[in-house]
Design a protein that fits this description.
single chain, 345 residues, alpha+beta, 10 helices
Length: 345
């Protein structure tokens, strides 16, 4: 029932702005527009660029819909204006593109930076452990972006942040553990970058003889893939596994992560034996069977593993690799025993 009401409310909010856009498009196809195209071009431009976003704002101002979504109607208005308004009558549209839209973009970027800074300060005050940028970024984007856009935006920002901005060395605290030093994953990913680079050059030369545009598109996609892998690699250095507030934060860079309540751990064993991966048994590594593990965590109840772009998978047994496996196991057992003791008191 609630879902039906929410759907109806969403359709009502979107319906009026969309209806106005459709009416404006139909108006440009009518004989009225042909006879008065100069004055109507100005009116339609202002309606699409200002009236439609303003009406949308009035409808969402008292809802939980992020105000930043107004920009989507501004962009739609610009695109529609560019298509339906004769090029000779796009003076005000060009002014908007040149002077107003860049200001809107800058304002939104400034707002995101402000919100991100505020969230980081809040984490430093309320969190006992170190600040995790990826977690803060997700919390920030959930507050200012539509739900469907959060994970894709967060992933793309994180790739560039870890790949090209975050260069400071990450020193581990006593409750943090690395997982990349002895696993071989870094070497594998670096080799993959080299292979992509070699293949890109070869295919670019071959494709350029057939279609230069296709060659550059493939080259761009390959470069983008290389940038993503660099971001993945560096995020493994910057996002260690940690034990905080009676929880185990298992991270594999920005590729996979899960949070386990320590009281939900049934057993933890040091083991490198091959295991069959299926619905309730998974690996923390996004490479799956390609990467070796040296520990297996078994849970009392199923938990959720979150991968790239928010893909969720359930598990009850999780195979992981920890560089200092003995210290990690001892720390888990120590905290778990303390929790059991506290529960009996």
């Amino acid at each position: 029932m609630n879902r039906t009401l929410n759907l109806q409310k969403s359709l009502a909010i979107l319906g009026i702005p969309v209806l106005i856009i459709v009416i404006m498009i139909l108006l440009t196809k009518s004989s009225i527009f042909t006879k008065n195209f100069n004055s109507l071009s100005i009116a339609i431009t202002f309606d699409l660029l200002l009236t439609v976003p303003f009406i949308y704002f009035l409808q969402i101002r008292k809802t939980n819909i992020p105000k930043i979504t107004i920009l989507s109607f501004v962009i739609i208005g610009m695109v529609v204006c560019t298509i339906i308004i004769p090029s000779n009558n796009q003076y005000y549209l060009d002014l908007f593109k040149t002077w107003i839209f860049p200001v809107l973009e800058l304002s939104i970027v400034s707002y995101v930076i402000y919100k991100l800074t505020r969230f980081i300060k809040r984490y430093k005050v309320n969190k006992n452990g170190s600040v995790d940028f990826f977690t803060v970024l997700k919390d920030t984007c959930r507050e200012i972006l539509p739900k469907a856009a959060v994970i894709p935006v967060v992933t793309e920002i994180a790739v560039f942040y870890y790949g090209f901005i975050y260069w400071k060395k990450r020193n581990l605290s006593k409750n943090e553990f690395s997982y990349h030093k002895n696993s071989g994953t870094i070497s594998l990913l670096i080799a993959l970058i080299v292979i992509i680079g070699i293949e890109t050059v070869v295919f670019h030369i071959l494709l350029a003889k057939w279609n230069l545009a296709a060659a550059w598109i493939l080259t761009f996609l390959s470069i983008y893939s290389g940038i993503q892998i660099i971001g993945f690699i560096k995020s493994m250095y910057k996002r260690p596994i940690s034990i905080e507030n009676n929880k185990l934060f298992l991270r594999y860079g920005i590729m996979n992560e899960t949070i386990i309540e320590l009281c939900n751990i049934d057993s933890i064993e040091i083991s490198s034996k091959d295991i069959e991966l299926y619905k309730i048994t998974r690996k923390l590594s996004f490479l799956g069977a390609l990467e070796n593990h040296n520990m297996i965590i078994r849970l009392k109840e199923e938990n959720t593993l979150i991968g790239l772009y928010g893909i969720k998978r359930t598990y009850k047994n999780l195979a992981i690799h920890i560089d200092d496996k003995n210290e990690f196991k001892n720390r888990i057992i120590s905290v778990s025993n303390r929790l059991k003791l506290d529960a009996t008191l």
